[in-house]
Design a protein that fits this description.
122 residues, alpha/beta, six-stranded mixed beta sheet, 4 helices, 6 strands
């Protein structure tokens, strides 16, 4: 199965507008607040842009280094159940790229904020 993901490290109004214009279906925000496992608050103007563009926005804060909190498994389950194409908003793009590769997903090594084509290993 081929899945296309785009990784971004920020979610601002101009980013949201670009995502709407490019026809994305879901934004999954995996960022955490600093020093907490809670998600980062989203600004109302950004959420309005996403909603007006019919983009589903979900928060699932994941700390890659905390084995006790919600983890990559839950994030992967949510990723594969969402409307495509999908954008992941993450704290550290390279760390997530490495994590997805470690979990058996092959990336093509495209630049940050460019689509990643992932081939799920059987």
């Amino acid at each position: 199965m081929i899945m296309e993901l785009t990784l971004v490290s920020t979610l601002k109004r101009d980013t949201a507008t670009r995502l709407v214009s490019q026809g994305f279906g879901t934004v999954l925000d995996l960022r955490t607040s600093i020093g907490s496992t809670a998600g980062r608050p989203i600004e109302e103007p950004v959420l309005k842009v996403l909603n007006q563009g019919f983009i589903n926005y979900q928060q699932l804060p994941v700390d890659l280094y905390d084995s006790e909190g919600p983890g990559v498994r839950e994030a992967l389950e949510t990723m594969f159940a969402t409307v495509k194409p999908l954008v992941l908003v993450v704290d550290d793009v390279e760390a997530w790229r490495e994590e997805l590769t470690f979990l058996g997903l092959k990336t093509l090594g495209l630049p940050i904020e460019a689509p990643l084509h992932l081939d799920v290993a059987a």
